[in-house]
Design a protein that fits this description.
This protein is mainly beta. Helices cover about 0% and strands about 55% of the residues.
């Protein structure tokens, strides 16, 4: 069983930065994918960014150039550096991992507001 524990959400002003972290515990296969989804009020959950163990990434167009995904395979941890945050980035951000099946974190709130 895999558990994902997120940290790093919070309230930030427009133009500010936040860094999310997600650590996986339990048995996770080498060829896994880890990353982030988000869900804003009244909207469907959407992919933000994912990264394979080999470093291949998939990033939604709306955050390209502002958000950077990275991971430490030895620590089974994935990060999301979010810069130039906008009010429309406000959402609950969920850590995601796929290792034989999909796993989700509990979610962390990111609020961008002045």
């Amino acid at each position: 069983q895999v558990q994902l524990v997120e940290s790093g959400g919070g309230l930030v002003q427009p133009g500010g930065s936040l860094r999310l972290s997600c650590a996986a515990s339990g048995s996770i296969s080498y060829g896994n994918v880890m990353g982030w989804y988000r869900q804003a009020p009244g909207k469907e959950r959407e992919l933000v960014a994912t990264m394979t163990t080999g470093g291949s990434t998939n990033v939604v167009d709306s955050v390209k150039g502002r958000f950077t995904i990275s991971r430490d395979n030895a620590k089974k941890t994935v990060y999301l550096q979010m810069n130039s945050l906008k009010p429309e980035d406000t959402a609950v951000y969920y850590c995601y991992a796929h290792s034989s099946k999909a796993y989700w974190g509990q979610g962390t709130q990111v609020t961008v507001s002045s």
